[in-house]
Amino acid sequence: MKKYLVTLIVALGLLTMVPMSWALTMADVGNLDTLMFQESLADAKVSYGTNVQDDAVLLWVQDMLDDDSITFDNKNEDMSGWEAIVGAPGVWAIGLDENPEYFVLKTGATPSGNDLFLYNNLASLAYAVVNLQALGVSVENIGKISHVNEYNGTEVPEPATLILLGLGLLGIAGIRRKK
After folding, report:
1. pLDDT given for residue 20 in this prediction
2. What SS3 class is residue 120?
3. Residues 130/32, Cβ–Cβ less than 8 Å
4. pTM for the whole structure
5. CA 179, CA 170: separation in Å to the nearest integer?
């Protein structure tokens, strides 16, 4: 009995050391995010009169969305987290840190000559879901992706927050009424 228990403990210990791997489905990540605009970084730097990459990209995003309130939130340079979406050829997803409304994918050279791709982040804000094949980035060249910049637009309160606020106000009104 003791031999079986030791074997079981060793087996479970070894299983915890194996990296977990699973496939993402479209249900896990929401939906394909919408490509809104694309540009080359070199053109953006010239258009906005700055040689600083992040400044030029922010100005480009604000200009394309016609919204100066858009803010830069995060730059994710760890591109090792890309995962293929099962049943959607060419579609890949990567986790985002700040749940942004918009994100910019910066790649190396693509067939179109553009390397900045502005997306509207849809269903699941926790993931960037893009069709890399449509951009000319193959699985073999996924290393051509430099980083993902995250941008938030005007913040809108979440429905749950408004519900909690409403319940709190109702509670206060109920306490006042009893007095």
Report:
1. 43
2. strand
3. yes
4. 0.72
5. 15
